Amino acid sequence: MLDLGGVSRRYSGRAAVDGVSLSVGRGEFVGVIGRSGAGKSTLLRMVNRLVEPSAGHIRWDGTDVTALRGRALRDWRARCAMVFQQFNLSGRLDVLTNVLMGRLNRTPLHRALLGLWSEEDRAIALSALEQLDMGAFAAQRADRLSGGQQQRVAIARALVQEPEIILADEPVASLDPRNTRVVMDALAGINRRYGITILCNLHSLDLARGYCSRVVGLSAGRLVFDGAPAALTEAAARELYGLEAPETVGPAAMPAGGIPVPAHPAMSAVGFA
Ligand SMILES: Nc1ncnc2c1ncn2[C@@H]1O[C@H](COP(=O)(O)OP(=O)(O)OP(=O)(O)O)[C@@H](O)[C@H]1O
């Protein structure tokens, strides 16, 4: 379980994230929503310590993530994979090698630098690509792929880390609607198949409603909504997004392929700041 207690991050005295407390159980698919600058990226990056919290605690199954150093921190980062908006692939390397980078924490550095990946690692990477319908592209340079394909490679790289949690920071913000569906379907599939917990920053309320089992909303760094997607009423959305609401909310949408969207029984709206 991921447990955040009173987590804050300040920049020059100004809070980007302000006293957020949140518990996320294993296997949840949590959408983090809020307008631009609300603190979504900062919150996610604190979980894997790309950003250091100014206050509060972050625990995973009781381990204090904020106290980890050295090897223990690297291990934690392997267990909580990041997926970024801009994919962060090495464009000149082939797709399979990009995915193998997700095995770095399990491979001696000198072997990785020489490209001496074990047969097992190669098999795992290929299998991850195949699960994301990208097996046929294994030998291609990553920069020859479309954005949606690149993001699926990035998700395969995250998957071969064998993570317990995936932090996806606006993974579809650069994609067209069709690729958005493909990538969100891929994340949902991983979540269901392996029970990997997913925290996913999203701009679109439709996507949060359609794919996530739970939605948390940030406004000016504070947690102002935590509930089932169905609890995200138009009034709640307006509170979160203000004037952006009509463009952002749109009609409720179901994902392609009929992904089931279970309600989160334990959660209810916690009100608005
Ligand atoms: N390194 C930094 N230095 C100073 N201020 C920062 C830094 N990173 C983030 N901020 C500020 O913290 C606030 C929250 O930023 P953050 O990127 O977390 O928001 P966000 O909700 O992810 O926004 P977006 O949806 O636009 O990515 C913003 O006001 C931002 O300007």
UniProtKB/TrEMBL annotation:
Q: Supply the alphabetized keyword list.
A: ATP-binding, Cell membrane, Membrane, Nucleotide-binding, Translocase, Transport
List, in alphabetical order, the Gene Ontology terms for molecular function in this entry. ABC-type phosphonate transporter activity; ATP binding; ATP hydrolysis activity
Domain ABC transporter, chain residue ranges per copy: 2-245
Q: Name the Pfam families on file.
A: ABC_tran (PF00005)
Which cellular component, as a GO term, is one annotated location?
membrane
Q: Which InterPro entries match?
A: AAA+_ATPase, ABC_transporter-like_ATP-bd, ABC_transporter-like_CS, ABC_transpr_PhnC, MetN_ABC_transporter-like, P-loop_NTPase
CDD domains according to UniProt: ABC_PhnC_transporter
Q: Which SMART domains match?
A: AAA
Which NCBIfam families does the protein's record reference?
ABC_phnC
- PANTHER family assigned: AMINO ACID IMPORT ATP-BINDING PROTEIN, PHOSPHONATES IMPORT ATP-BINDING PROTEIN PHNC
Q: What is the name of the protein in this document?
A: Phosphonate ABC transporter ATP-binding protein
Q: Which organism does this record belong to?
A: Roseicella aquatilis
